Amino acid sequence: MDAENLIDTGLAGDFDDDFEPFDPAGDTSLPGERYLDRELSWLAFNQRVLELAEDPTTPVLERANFLAIFASNLDEFFMVRVAGLKRRILTGLAIPTNVGRAPQDVLADISAKAHELQERHAAAYAELVRPALAESGIHIVRWDELEDAERSNLRDYFSRQIFPVLMPLAVDPAHPFPYISGLSLNLSVRVRNSKTGKQEFARLKVPQMLPRFLKIPHDPGAERFITLEDLIANHLGDLFPGMEILEHHVFRVTRNEDVEVDEDETENLIKALEKELLRRRFGPPIRLEVTDDMDDVTLGLLVRELDVTDNEVYRLPAPLDLGGLFDIAKIDRPDLHYPTHVPTTSARLQPLEPNSRPDIFSAIARGDVLLHHPYESFATSVQAFIEQAAADPHVLAIKQTLYRTSGDSPIVEALIDAAESGKQVLALVEIKARFDEQANISWARKLEKAGVHVVYGLVGLKTHCKLALVIREEKGELKHYSHIGTGNYNPKTSRIYEDLGLLTDDDQVGKDLTRLFNELSGYAIEKKFKRLLVAPLHLRKGLLRHIATETQNALDGKPARIRIKVNSMVDEAIIDALYRASNAGVPVDIWVRGICSLMPGVPGMSENIRVRSILGRYLEHSRIFSFLNGGDPHVFIGSADMMHRNLDRRVEALVRLTEQEHLDEIAGLFDRAMDERTSSWWLGDDGVWVRHHLDEDGALLVDMQNTLMHEIGSRKRPGRNR
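^ Polyphosphate kinase, sequence as received from the core. Prediction below:
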């Protein structure tokens, strides 16, 4: 799998591999069946991605990108979530579900919905996006549509650039059925020996290092492409000389690629993880995709050799693996993409004098800075903060958590520079970040070689919080400068992920982070904090306490309101508390990107709860928790979603915002998101998401992301003439 593509697309779903038991009958004041199935809810999220690809008002290369995102999302869903469910069933482990269904029924429902969505996905490409690309001069053609001159050029290209790297593998008594790597494209080939008349089977892997869509030389003004597998399929005679080609079809296998390491039973986590990463390649198959023209003999062979069930077979029209459309989506045609957006430097971080050099520390000292990426630049804020700290002779220490970043990241280079200049540098690297494990191990070792103190978190917990702490000497005293964010320290994804971050010199936040970092590099998370809510011990309890306060205020006739923005809403205790708040009369707004197990608008349970989802050019990734608190709002931002893993098995941190300007900004975001004039998806009491993007006259509703892009981009530093 191309993990970088998956991460860069950003719309990959959140997968909870936690199956801890929960008794939904524990609260007898609420109905027994009060949760939506989280697997089907995730598939509904991916359907919303597909709807963006189907939308003719979306620029056509962005539609191709959304088709690719859908494909990558679904791959990960099968590799992690479906694989985990199947493994539990096969090993006899219990699978508690929050909707009380049998495990086999769970898998059957997933299979039915996944089949439906994959067929819709294929149809969206064939009937909507491919023709729309052609209308714009981008043609994805088949071999039989080529002109003679084009075929001649491609034959020459095949002979020189493709044929030498192909490896046909025969299947016969002397050659056992070959290993089929996960997510690779393969050609199944049946041939007949012209001398003996005997039929044989061979497998041909489509090389992954070659472009999936090959550009065909053509007249200026149009771009033409052919899939690599189509070109190879039409030159099989070169690979099997003297044999008659009877059948050839494309197939693809998805395997269980989840990683399991017993941290309590290993002395060296990195070595154990590296060993498990090798095993990942050989996980059992959980999905077989085949082209819909595959003959029964070939399909029967594949099903038997790969040991998959009929429900795990997906017959689809060619081409398979539309994740390859990422390459098409990168074509340099600005007229077919979203308009270019250049992030602005946060108004609070702009220098006081024109043309002067920005000073991040002075800007933070003037007041807390709330950052909103990608509308505001990550490079001129968070990255500049770390880089300035690394170069500043007054900075004594830098401490930072790193969950997902890239090996060539300026953040990593700045930490190396800081360590080499003699500063104390601590990097808490989460090497268990799924599908980034090997990359994180590699650059963690690079940090260690430079003298950075690298630690790998706590046994049994992932460190998911986004924290940076700088200790600076000023006038003989030590001062704390802190960053707490909702997104990873990754310059690449910061351009497409919507995230919030707080830069502050607040002494209490600095002391909280100092203690938290000490505990992360030590052995335990035990203490409570002043301005932070920290998982796994106190975050859920803190949020439940705030929800209970709003509930009681409503019962007492006082103003009350709850607003939450997350990627996933699954945790039953939080959902039940929100149901009780709704029953007490508290207006509850939930703004969720992906999974939502909460059922809104149900009389007697959740009629005061609204749920919205916004998808678009940016990945909505920030997490916000806002409580009216009797007129003294308590508003938190941070890294935690409302899932068992985040609240029980991860180190997460939320920080409370205190400046009125920031509270007003957060309130404005919720006002926009929940406004009926904003384009969004609404979750109904029947669990169905309905898109609202047109008004009664058929005009497009407001694109919130586009509006914020223009408004934030026009901000000026306070005090400047506008």
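Confidence is low (pLDDT under 50) at residues 1-23, 261-267.
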